[in-house]
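Hello,

Our lab assistant flagged a job as stuck in the queue for most of the afternoon. It eventually completed. Since we weren't sure the result was trustworthy after the delay, we are filing this so someone can double-check. Below is the sequence as submitted and the structure that was eventually returned. Let us know if re-running is recommended.
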Amino acid sequence: MNSVYKKKLFISNLAGLSDRSYGVSVKYYKGAAADPFKRIDYEAAIQLTEHDLGWLMRLEKKEVFFNRHEPDTVSERFADLVSRSLYPVETVIDGWGTQVTGIVNHEAIINRWQKNRQRLLDKYSGPVADDFVAVVDQSIQNSAVIQRSMSYDLFWNLFFHPKYMAYTETYMQPVALYLSVLPYKAPVRFPGTQKIIPQITGYGSIVVQFVSEALAAPQELFLEHQQKTPCYMKVTADFDLDREHHFAMHTRALLEVYEKEGKYTTVPVQKIEFTMYQL
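-- returned structure --
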């Protein structure tokens, strides 16, 4: 990679970028199991248009499947109605891929929720449905609350993780990745090291790799039992950016929770695997 190209890499060139669609899969594993006990799959689509402050980004989430089937339990259907109300969500980003505004289509989100709210109440009755609707009613009225709720989403965490920066001559830089590891809780800060691979891949991408330090894992992560020994967690992530626009192509992230057994051996407790690939 020559020096001119390396300088260009530090900022995204979004002019002429076509719409992007991604297949997204989030899988949850227990211990050393080869198969996930839970997974969520969906399609994400991004449209960009020029804006006075940068670029208006429209994010759509659709075709949501829970454990490879359409929403069928009550909780899944409730969650799907909220998702259908929230998306498409719009915000403004700059050439670095950083948000420069909050959510800018708040009124459209409220209108969608009012329609879906009525569908929910027409189909379900009782205190569970009433309580659910009351919570969403209160939350969706405040655009700042919606913005905060987006930080509970792994796609949002990884998409907006900073990848453009002044890397050192060794192509490395200390940085923190914020990842939502607990439902409806603020993302956890994972300090670590990020590096850029100076060669273009065979499929025309630039790879940015992140490796976190090990952190003590919160007890809330353990779904079924109390851990008798301390557990730790770490995150690794690979980001593929296209060589022309330096925009997201593929993302792979892995959160591992483990016990230490001796000085060099670890025992897996849980892991979350996030995969996003350009369609």
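-- support follow-up --
The delay was a queue issue, not a problem with the job. The result is valid. The first strand starts at residue 20 and ends at 30. The CA atoms of residues 40 and 66 lie 5 Å apart.
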